[in-house]
Amino acid sequence: MFIQQSMGGRRADILSANPIHAAKQYFNASKAVTALMLALTLIFSLGGMSKASAATNGVAVTSVNLRAGPSTQYPVVRVMPQSASLVIYGCSGDRTWCDVSWAGARGWVSASYIYVNYNGQQTVLTSSIVPVIGIATVAFSVAYWDSHYHSQPWYGHWDRYYHGGSRKAVAGCGPNGCGAAAVTRGPHGGARAAAGGCRDGNCGGAAVTRGPNGGGRAAVGGCGPEKCGAASVTRGPLGNTRVRQGSIDRP
Questions:
Q1: What is the β-pairing status of strands 166-174 and 177-185?
Q2: E strands along 1-60, which residues?
Q3: What is the pLDDT of residues 103-140, one digit of tens each?
Q4: Looking at the DSSP assignment, which residues form a beta bridge with residue 166?
Q5: Which residues are 100's β-sheet partners?
Q6: Average pLDDT in the 36-52 region?
Q7: Nearest residue to 183 (alpha-carbon basis) of 196, 169, 197
Q8: Which class for 168: exposed (0-12), middle (13-18), buried (19 or more C-beta within 10 A)?
Q9: How confident is the model at residue 215 (pLDDT cuts 50, 70, 90)?
């Protein structure tokens, strides 16, 4: 049976706010957690998450617009002159647009308008070169917009420019089990990340959801040899928190 705890406007205590720790208190999750760790190991081994990388220097091929997002539908932040020196922080998942800075301004520019140093020569940045020179894959979201464009006249019109969400997933099996993970981003800035795996007949998983207006939910669950258990923490955009946790015996 689940135990539910309402916290009103207060934050949950440390034990309740950590669903993984709470789940351990209510069932023997050793193998379930092992299965989850296996899933995360598989994610990293399959390249499901980008590793952090240092910024890369680049040069503008010609005069080009620095835009507020990875598409020509986004407003222009600045117009960069030919041969402008850029700092490249990463590129979109399809490697066609890159997050750069120039003269104190931050934004996105089409990769085809960027020169990089490749094999000792100045070369146009292509999708095949991006991973070779260590440029990371980065995501674009409302958080990026909030961080860089507060002073812009179009700042309050995010919904006018951003029209789509995205989903990326990875899955695979290793010698000891199988695992999978997915990251989904909503059209208005919300997101959900989930991972899970199975090993030796025992399975575990975890998920975190963040709403576009604040608030979110974190949950973990799994089954060991004798019991199954789960725990979750849900927090509303105004701070109200609900904790649920419990376990049952396996038949």
A1: antiparallel
A2: 3-6, 56-60
A3: 999 999 999 999 999 999 999 999 999 999 999 988 88
A4: 185
A5: 88, 107
A6: 43
A7: 169
A8: middle
A9: confident
The amino acid occupying position 120 is: G
Say if CB 142 and CB 150 are below 8 A apart. Answer: no
- Structural domain spans, the chain: 3-49+166-249, 56-137
Second-level CATH architecture of 56-137: Roll (2.30)
- Checking if the pLDDT of 28 tops 90, the result is no
**Residue of 10, 19, 194 whose CA lies nearest to 2:** 19
What are the pLDDT digits (tens) for 174-183? Answer: 888 888 888 7
> What is the C-alpha separation between 250 and 130, in angstroms, rounded?
49
175: its two tokens: 């010698």
Tell me the residue length of the chain.
251
Amino acid at 15: L
Nearest to 221 by CA among 236, 202, 238, 234: 202
The edge-to-edge listing of strands for the beta sheet with 216-223 is 3-6, 241-249, 227-235, 216-223, 202-210, 191-199, 177-185, 166-174
- In sequence order, what are the beta bridge partners of 198? 178, 203
β-pair partners for 107:
100
Retrieve residue 55's tokens: 């910024």
- Alpha-carbon torsion angle 130, 181, 207, 23, nearest 10: -130
